[in-house]
Amino acid sequence: MNKDPRLSDMSRRDREPLVHLENKDLMPLPAPLDSPEKDHEWTPLSEQTRERYECGLDDTCAVNVPQPKTKEEEDELVRKFLSGLEKLFTREGNWTFLQPLLLTMEHCARCQTCSEACHIFEASGRNEYYRPTYRSEIMRRLYFKYVKDGGGGLISAWQHGDIELNWPLVARLIELSYRCNLCRRCAQTCPIGADNGLVAHELRKLFSQEMGIAAKELHESGSVLQLKVGSSTGMNSIVVRDNIDFIDEDVAEKTGMDIKTPWDVEGADVLLIHNAGEIMAWPENPGAFAVILTAAGIKWTLSSELAAYDGINYGLWYDDAQFARVAIKHAQAAKKLGAKKIVIGECGHAHKALSVIADRVLTGDLNIPRESSMTLLREIVMSGRLKLDPARNDFPVTLHDPCNLVRLMGVVEPQREIVRKICPQFREMEPHGVDNYCCGGGSGFAIMSGNNFQDWRFHVSGRKKLQQVLNAFSDCLDPSIPKYLCAPCSNCKGQLRDLLAYYNIWETNRILYGGLVELIVNAMVDVKPGFLEWEWH
Amino acid sequence: MIVGLYVVVYAAVLVALTGCIARAVQYARTPLHLRWELYPVPHEASERVEHGGSYFEESDWWQKPSHFNLWGELKFMIPEMVFLKGLWEFNRKLWFRSFPFHFGLYLLIGTVVLVAFGEALAPVYVVTGATGAALAILGALALLVRRLTDSRLRIYTAPADYFNLVFFVVALSALGAGCLAKPAELTLPALLRGMATFDTTLRIPGLLEAGILLCALLAAYIPLTHMSHFIAKWFTYHHVRWDDKANYKAEAMQKKIAEYLSYRPGWAAAHMLTGKTWAEIATANPWEGAKK
User: Fold this and answer.
1) Domain A220-378 belongs to what topology?
2) Interface confidence: ipTM more than 0.90
């Protein structure tokens, strides 16, 4: 580990990574992972990747930016970066976030209060390059030097600090913008209201919108695929309907109920939009939704319109245009059906994207009311429309708070009211609610696994959540006791699945992860017992 | 000499006010941004503020009356502004340095107001002034020592950050020492009256004059720096963190958005359709119909 990190390290011309982490450097974990030896070795980045791509930041590589071949290419990339930087600070280029960005650039006191709130900084063993203000301070100095003070000068350097802009700095900054979960826990603690999460978000936008550089999983295999075929899973509308038919059959058999998911019903009270990843990876989740909505007598539908059967909106994390395109598709589908409201399934970022961030993109009759499934489910459960037997859920349960749903949208209690009602052994993680920690898969990391990026997200970004989960079940870690980690978010589930599997937690401690609706159906008296399958998947 | 001091003080006050207003106007004129709130939002309904909930917790929230819980905001804002509650909660060590500094400045500002009411309040303003100066100087020194000795802060610190704190220590020390050393017949209300009426017969001792001069320059300097965060904080809290205004049937908001959607952002990446407006970009699907 570099004992004397500086901001100028980002401009270093050698390609040696600035960060190298060993297990002994990392934040300790509780039992059964309570010594660095019990942790996995990191998979090294391949030589081929290091030779072809810009991997000068740390032990991994998230974006795979090809190394420029000539000085001219480098200069052109730097020129594009500067051009994008300027656009971020114009009302025409960035009306969407100009005000919060300016405030963050111009008023951070560098007091480092935010650092203590960052799970990545803490889990990395407080590595300076992962401090939330490190990235922001680079951006801030570039802003003052090249945008605000028109090329810098001595006074600017004296007042705001200097920075050398070159291609190595830009290349490292691209990677560094993908070492933040955008959970904004840091922003919550800033006495002034500066927002380092926003800085990472805006940097990603600059790289995507000006330079055409983004993580492949978010852009090419994410938002582009969704706009091309209808879903980032690659499912077109025919395939998705087939899959849902199959889920209906399966769930009907399992529950003993007659289940038929309705499609494209005009005038439905509820247009339900799932994260399509659920359909592929956790079919019991859309199946459980179908059971609950059918049993509760809700007039609901799914839409087979392009992009409207997949609630994901990866643009939220890196690109305003891609974000707006998908949000508008969702709203247009609801408008076409004349649905009274859109209800968003168990997906945190889909919640925030469509309910909060898209609110000022959707104007006129496209601003169709959007509601959280947590709220609708709470209403159904508390209304007594379902006969529920909590004894069916008599095992230890804890609840993960998806950042997008809770800290960034304020949906905190509905899911808790449900879990308290149907899970007698519910216990909170600490901290929880709006003070929760990210699962470590936020901002797209859960679906990013190129090169050895998974190693980073398990060892570093997911470490705090793993600590919380183990602590929440510390009184019952014995594998003879099955335990349930309820995560009402598809991306969080993806991260938790991979994280728990990596550390073999199912085998050693019998902690299963899953959604909220599965717990509800598991408690339904009118359903055959045993909806939850206590097996790893 | 006295005229020169008055000119500097008046000019400094003018610069300070202009700087503050210009900064506030700069932020106020930025476009309405996309929502980016952070919970808890204290003006939410009181039963939700406690756990950080929002109106999204209600079924059919758009059919329910909207809440603005002023008491909730005040309950948050007053302890934050007066006692730096956030810092107390999240960075206790820094609070022990930053709170005396800020509270000392509040006391000094309050002292100026008390002095304006005349000598009858001397027992009060002497205490507030002396306490304020002592707290602000000690706080600034403590902050300076932290910045000089804490290696974690060093790489994020620009030369001006040291200068700013030194400036506070020197200016307030000179002012404090000047007040202590001034002749008894020159009372603070008389001094303030003299300055307010441009009284050229007023005789101010050199040390006090230097203190006044430095404090005036400091007041003019603050709005030009990040230390004007007292202005920024209004916007970061009320216009960003707590801005949860829904756009559902909000005509005035939609009018503004319509204007923004007509902007041509000019981003250069291929999918950004350079030259088109935001509305055209957002409603275009460059990949529709393309094969997987």
Assistant:
1) Rossmann fold (3.40.50)
2) yes
